[in-house]
Automatic annotation (TrEMBL):
Organism name: Kineococcus glutinatus
InterPro entries the record matches: CysQ/Inositol_MonoPase, Inositol_monophosphatase-like
SUPFAM superfamilies the UniProt entry points to: Carbohydrate phosphatase
Alphabetical list of CDD domains matching this protein: CysQ
Protein name (record): 3'(2'),5'-bisphosphate nucleotidase CysQ
Region: Disordered, residue numbers: 80-102
Pfam families with a match to the protein in the record: Inositol_P
Amino acid sequence: MLQELLGALRPDDAVLSEEAADDPARLTASRVWIVDPLDGTREFGEPPRPDWAVHVALWADGDLVAGAVALPALGVTVGTAEPPPPPAHRPGRSRIAVSRTRPPVEATAAAGALDAELVPMGSAGAKVVAVVRGEVDAYVHAGGQYEWDSAAPVAVARAAGLRACRLDGSELRYNRTDVRVPDLLVSRPGIADAVLAAVAGAR
């Protein structure tokens, strides 16, 4: 459905999707939609789990310029058109979202340094939305993803005033020849530097 809509509404734009063959023409296109129609397949197959998502982002002229993440099981969609305000600081221990199946050692190190609680979740989109909504304070991922896993969540996080970067603090880049994204941090600005320092110490 997403492919058909984009083809009808934006026929001159390129599309990079998990569910379609990669067309190298996107590398020279000025506008590229980066789409993951179902992020969190395992969670989708375990109803009533809500931590699966739909990702749609627009890369244009060298950067992410728009994006939306839908959590259909919760009836929630967050996007860059009307970004939520930055989350308020929560009282109590910090909480760091991590993979349900492979929480990285970097997250464990950050949790130890910040006396934080690790919170396993499914979809990358669900984890980032949890940071956007103030349910957790950060999301730490290592071990590899693909551009469609993080493009829309990162666009939304940036619009909401969150820090989104690689685990070495460098900029995230999209619409590249190699679509792998090795690692990711999305965090409230107030603890981002502490998380990055803890990760650096663990590497």
